Amino acid sequence: MDVRVSIEVAMSPKTAFANVIDEVTLSLHRLGLEFQPKAGGRIRQGKKELGRILSWSPGKQAEIVWYPLEWDPKTQSRLRLDFQPTKRGTRVTLGHRGLERIIGMDGGEQLGWFSTQLAVPFLNSLTPSGLGDWITDRRARRPSGAGSRKTYRNPTFHIPNFKAILAKLSLSPEDRLLEIGCGGGVLLKEALMSGCRAAGVDHSPEMVRLATKKNAKAVKEGRLEIRETEADSLPFEDARFTCAVMTSILGFLPDPVKVFREVRRVLKPGGRMIVFSTSKEAKGTPAAPEPIASRVHFYEDNEIEQMALQAGFHTAHVERPDLSEYARGIVPKQAQDAFSNPFGQLLMAHTG
C-alpha cells in the first residue's frame, strides 16, 4: 500500500533537495533522532537504528529503508523523496510503501492511521492557533529554517538594540560576558572586539550552529564558547561571568524570575545584567507584529524591575532608550523614525 504527499515550490530541484534535507535533519534532531544525510547514512534514536539510506541522489531522490516495529525488527517499509522539475520549479513528493506490513490489511485500520496520523495533524497545523504557533516558533521563539537563518545572520533591525546594550556595558578585556538567546551571534561578535571573553547559549540548534560559524575564529581561539541549552538551566559554574545580556527573549520565558535567578547564580559579585525587551506600546507594529505579538508577554517597566529584585539582584532599573542614534546608517531611512519611539525597555540590574 502506497501513501504519497507532494508540494510544488518555485525553486530548482537542487535547492529544494538541500532545503528539505536540512529541515528534516534539524527537525529530527529536536525529536531526539539522528539523521545522517548522505549515501549509506543511518537514522538512529539513541543506539537504536530506525532506518538506512539506500539511495542518495542530491537534486533527484533519496530512498530509505525503515524499521518501524520494535517488536518485529525484521519488518521493513520504504520511504522515498522525489524531486521532479516542473514549469514552476520543483514538485517534491514524499512516498511510503509497505503500510500493510505495519498496520495490516484491514481497510478500516489503514484509514484510521491515515486519518489520525496524517489528516488530522495536517488540519491542526492550519488552524489559527497551530499556524500562529508555528510562525512564532520559526521566526522568533525558537528560530529555524532558511528564512530565519538569513534574518539572524544579519539582524539589521536588532543592531540598534545591540549597540545600546554594548554602550551601557562598556566592556573591557577583563570582562566575561554571557549572552542568553544569542541568535546568530552578531552581538557576541561585536562584544568580542573589546577584548573580553564570552559565552553564548540558545535553545535553537540552528542558532547555535549559525552563531558558531559567525564567530568561528573566536571559538577556535578559545575566547568564545556557544552551547545549546535552555535559559533556566545554564551549564556554567557559579560566579563565572562579570555581565550577562538578553535581547528580545523576555516575553517568551515561561518563568522569567527563575531565569534571572540562574543568571544571578553565574554572575560574579558586582556583576551586571542587561535585559532588552519590547513594551506593550509596540504591539501590532513592525517591532512586535502578529501572530508573534499575541504570543509574547509584555511587561510594565516596574514589573521587570521587581522580577530582577525578586531573583536576588541588589538594584534594578528600567529605562526607555532613544535608539535613533544607533539606527542611523544601519536601518533603511524609511524605518529610522520608529527607533525614536520609546518602545524598548532596557533593564540594568546589579548583583551588589
List keywords for this structure.
352 residues; 2 domains; seven-stranded mixed β-sheet; 12 helices; elongated
CATH class of the largest domain: Alpha Beta
| CATH fold title of the largest domain | Rossmann fold
How far the N terminus sits from the C terminus, by CA atoms, comes to: 68 Å
Using the alpha-carbon principal axes, give the shape: elongated
Number of helices: 12
Q: Provide the domain count.
A: 2
CATH homologous superfamily label of the largest domain: Vaccinia Virus protein VP39
**What is the number of beta strands?**
14
Q: Largest sheet at a glance?
A: 7 strands, antiparallel
Overall pLDDT score: 96
- The helical percent reads 25-40%
* Proportion in β-strands: 25-35%
The largest beta-sheet arranges its strands as 1-7-6-5-4-3-2
Radius of gyration over C-alpha positions, nearest whole angstrom: 24 Å
Briefly note the structural class of the backbone: alpha/beta
Oligomer: single chain
The CATH architecture of the largest domain is 3-Layer(aba) Sandwich
Q: Topology as H/E string?
A: EHEEEEEEHHHHHEHEHHEEHEHEHE
Taking pLDDT < 50 over at least 5 consecutive residues as the criterion, the unreliable ranges are none
